[in-house]
Design a protein that fits this description.
2 helices; cell division; flat; about 90 residues
Length: about 90
């Protein structure tokens, strides 16, 4: 696929249809949509009173939290690797 070409998929997230456009492969876009849908259903199951707007915000907060934890782990591993490479073997 050329650099500027975009993939377009139509998918359903939490009962609503969305068109997602991105440069990533269509399967990746579907996977992301599936993860968002799954997380929204998980959060909704814990609190049925949430409207879709609040549910979407809580889903975004959860995703950002998970991202930051992974980023911290990644940086710790990078630091550990740098220390390892700096040792005399």
């Amino acid at each position: 696929m050329a650099e500027n070409e975009k993939n377009r998929i139509t998918t359903t997230i939490y009962g609503r249809d969305y068109t997602i456009i991105g440069s990533e492969p269509a399967e990746h876009l579907r996977h992301v949509a599936h993860l968002v849908d799954t997380k929204m259903h998980e959060i909704s199951a814990q609190n049925r009173a949430l409207d879709s707007g609040r549910l979407a915000v809580l889903t975004a907060v959860n995703a950002t939290h998970d991202y930051l934890l992974l980023e911290e782990k990644y940086n710790a591993l990078k630091d550990e690797l740098a220390r390892y490479k700096g040792r005399d073997v």
